[in-house]
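Thread title: Can someone regenerate the structure for this chain?

I was given the following input by a collaborator and told the matching structure tokens would be attached. They weren't. Posting the sequence so someone can regenerate them.
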Amino acid sequence: MKVVEGESTDRTSAVRLWASGRNARAEFVRILGSLAGRAHDPRLPPAVRDTLARLDTRIPAAVYRGPQADGVQWLTRQLRESGLFLEGRAARFILQGDGPSLQSLGTSDLKGILLALKAALGHADPADPLVANLTRQAEQGLQTIQQDQMLNLSSLKDGLGWFWFIPGDPEDGFRHGEVFVRRPETEGEETFLSLSLDFTHLGHLDAALSMTRSGLGLRILVEDGGIADFLGDHLDDLRGGLARAGLNTGTITCRRRRTDDPEWTPFLDSVGLSGAVDVRA
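Best answer:
Regenerated them for you:
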């Protein structure tokens, strides 16, 4: 109920929640992998192993593993089943009979799986070090999701927008990403999206995207000059891909981050970067 009801907030509370949860988000995939690695441990009760097996099955679809033909659909599914909307989806099923059943949410939604795991561990021997460690990890995972639920509740109350975390796999070249979508204040206002992405080989990349009816503008900042030159040489390929998707492109730039460029911060940057991306052809 704390997540559903929320609390009175000020404009910077979402920023504080975001900043305080960055380390936990970075550890999120490692925790999930550690839990799933115990799916076949014979020392655990069958109910715990079954729940861990569901988590093991769910992880590949939750982690970004490189460019895919259905990237937009993947992102939609990942966001829907990330745990951020578990209570809302459950309430919709109970009140309206719409959407997945409560039982299926416990097999597909990350928060639903972690809650089911915590419940199963609650029937195991709490004095067992393995059970205690798995319980602690399940609680860490739940706390990470719940903090982002509170973060988004705070942000929406202040009329700012949506934030979500994209887990990745370093072996596939992508560690993790963060996305912020500003909530338009008026109908027809530009759509503003800000991303902070951490790649294994390309390093850190920040992107600000602005889209109106007339077109799309994009600014990319990277840490390394060589990477900036490499990406800059391929901007025409990006423009071509966007054109094939039916999008008109305005100014698209890529450069190395300067010392006077502000650090990527969602919510606050949505004001400062609005208009910084030229959408004019």
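Residues 129-157 form the longest helix (29 residues).
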